[in-house]
Design goal:
Layout (H helix, E strand, L loop, with lengths): L9 H10 L10 H11 L1 E4 L2 E4 L3 H12 L4 H10 L4 H4 L1
Antiparallel strand pairs: 1-2
Helix pairs in contact: 2-4
């Protein structure tokens, strides 16, 4: 019961074809991304896995560097796959 957001490119598509019988994949809706992050979102801060319980966790780890100050900013970054996607993910 894990979910991963990946940026679609040729190598990723080839890997997905190999594991297709064992996984489900597709393009998530904005509602799905939001629900997953609010319900099961975790962040890595100082090499520790911390649940995203409020906006302060996001602001401390990504606020100054990536200009992400809350959950909705994080949802937007992941859903639109902008240049800060890797740091947000």
């Amino acid at each position: 019961h894990n979910g991963v957001f990946l940026k679609v490119n040729k190598p990723i598509l080839q890997m997905l074809k190999l594991v297709q019988p064992y996984v489900t994949y597709g393009y998530p809706s904005l509602k799905t991304v939001r629900d997953l992050l609010y319900k099961r979102g975790y962040g890595k801060v100082n090499k520790q896995r911390i649940p995203i319980s409020d906006n302060s966790v996001i602001t401390k780890s990504l606020g100054e560097k990536q200009a992400l100050f809350g959950m909705e900013d994080l949802v937007h970054e992941i859903y639109t796959v902008v240049p800060n996607f890797k740091q947000a993910n």
